[in-house]
């Protein structure tokens, strides 16, 4: 079970961008998303810094943090969807009001660079969040995605969170989920925002990066003790890696890296950057068996 607060018709949701702002040409798709939410019976507010201007930077760090802090403080907002990605999310962490996040426990959805927010929210505030890109609702697999999201948020099913998987090693794992995009997750190393991996299930995915980069990042995690302490590993999609037919290289490397401990490893093609991806809840217990 996700234990996610359900939305109801008449509720208010917010759209924001904690990482790189969206390009102005994305406005058409975002307007489509807003219209869809209204069809769901939801009211929509958007951040003032949703779109980038002439650079990747979308305002002073404090100003960007203020936007998301206002959304967590605003009792009329029931859920927050981040539509951004890139590199900039970790820049605002020191300005985030994690105390307010802990009090409101408001559902927050994001993916990719927002992995830094998802993990920081869990580490500092003890709050679960959702690895999901809501822009999936206005792309290639929009019909299926819209049904999944509506049924989960409005009707209260777990359909969006029920993903298919296969076992690489083992038959069981259980623990609260941390991780996300491997590159972005590791940006938190050495900061107060990196979560404890002990007894947790680590979920990893990536958009960019071929075998040489991916095995380097996995080696870093092994040297940090992540794989010797965690309860299991879920591998989502690794887009560029799979496009070049290199996933098997990485799978073999992970198996060798974790062979001594016989770490349970599962693989799913339904979590990651694909616009047909489902969602996984961070900071909440998951059981695969």
Automatic annotation (TrEMBL):
GO terms for biological process: proteolysis. The active site is at 112 (nucleophile), 205 (charge relay system), 273 (charge relay system). This is LD-carboxypeptidase. One of its GO terms (molecular function) is serine-type peptidase activity. Residues 175-286 form the LD-carboxypeptidase C-terminal domain. The lineage of its organism: Bacteria, Bacillati, Bacillota, Bacilli, Bacillales. Keywords: Carboxypeptidase, Hydrolase, Protease, Serine protease. Gene3D superfamilies: Class I glutamine amidotransferase-like (3.40.50.10740), LD-carboxypeptidase A C-terminal domain-like (3.50.30.60). Belongs to the peptidase S66 family. It comes from the Bacteria. Residues 13-131 form the LD-carboxypeptidase N-terminal domain.
């Amino acid at each position: 079970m996700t234990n996610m607060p359900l939305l109801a018709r008449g509720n208010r949701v917010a759209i924001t961008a904690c990482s790189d702002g969206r390009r102005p040409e994305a406005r058409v798709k975002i307007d489509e998303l807003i219209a869809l939410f209204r069809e769901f019976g939801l009211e929509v507010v958007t951040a003032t810094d949703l779109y980038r201007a002439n650079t990747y930077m979308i305002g002073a760090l404090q100003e960007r943090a203020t936007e998301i802090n206002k959304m967590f403080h605003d009792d009329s907002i029931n859920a927050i969807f981040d539509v951004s990605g890139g590199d900039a999310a970790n820049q605002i962490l020191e300005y985030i009001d994690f105390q307010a996040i802990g009090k409101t426990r408001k559902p927050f959805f994001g993916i990719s660079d927002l992995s830094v927010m998802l993990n920081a929210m869990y580490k500092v505030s003890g709050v679960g969040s959702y690895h999901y890109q809501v822009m999936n609702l206005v792309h290639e697999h929009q019909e299926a995605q819209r049904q999944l999201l509506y049924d989960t948020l409005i009707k209260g099913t777990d359909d969006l969170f029920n993903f298919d998987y296969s076992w690489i090693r083992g038959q069981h794992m259980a623990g609260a989920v941390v991780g996300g995009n491997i590159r972005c997750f590791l940006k938190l190393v050495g900061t107060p925002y990196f979560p404890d991996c002990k007894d947790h299930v680590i979920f990893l995915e990536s958009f960019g990066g071929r075998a040489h980069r991916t095995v380097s990042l996995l080696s870093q995690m092994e040297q940090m003790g992540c794989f010797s302490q965690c309860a299991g590993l879920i591998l989502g999609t690794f887009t560029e890696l799979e496009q070049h037919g290199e996933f098997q290289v990485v799978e073999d490397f992970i198996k060798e890296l974790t062979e001594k401990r016989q770490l349970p490893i599962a693989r799913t093609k339904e979590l990651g950057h694909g616009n047909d991806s489902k969602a996984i809840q961070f900071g909440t217990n998951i059981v695969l068996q």
